[in-house]
Design a protein that fits this description.
By secondary structure, this protein is mainly α. The protein has one domain. The chain is built from seven helices and no strands. The longest helix has 34 residues. The relative contact order is 0.14.
Length: 179
Amino acid sequence: MDIYFVVLFFHISGAFILFMGMSLEWVGVTKLNRSVKLEQALEWTNFLSTYKSAFIIGGVLLLITGIYMASAKWGWAPWMMVSFLLWLFLVIQGSVFTGGKITTLRKFLNSSTDIKSSDLNSHIIKLKLLNLLQSRLTVGFGAIFIMTVKPDLAGSLIVVLIAFILGLAPFLSKQKSAA
């Protein structure tokens, strides 16, 4: 058995775990955006905080296996470096921006006792958590495309540009409350 294919399995598993985490995040953020009561919002911020391990496990698996495969078979080809930068973007945006906003929201909700439903929902919607997630998903799919097709540097950069443009689209549209 070739160890490369075992590592490839774990690399694909890491991507699967990462996207599984993003789908759980989609559910949590959608429900959070529909929250009209403080208790509901707290419940969904707690939910959003429970599966951080999926992002950590998926991200670490992608990084370690990606480094192994790069050094064992592919070298540091341009598509590989671009994929690594996209991975870094996903980690930073997910942990710093989205994770930070959820932590801040959770603290705010825990300290609030008397907040109107409309103010609560407006505060949550302004965080644009769903938009952040949508932008990470487009970048993630861009990374999958690059790792599958393995284009040259110009092709990789075109894919990144398209992914970032598609990722910005949710920020340009107005996110509405479903309440």
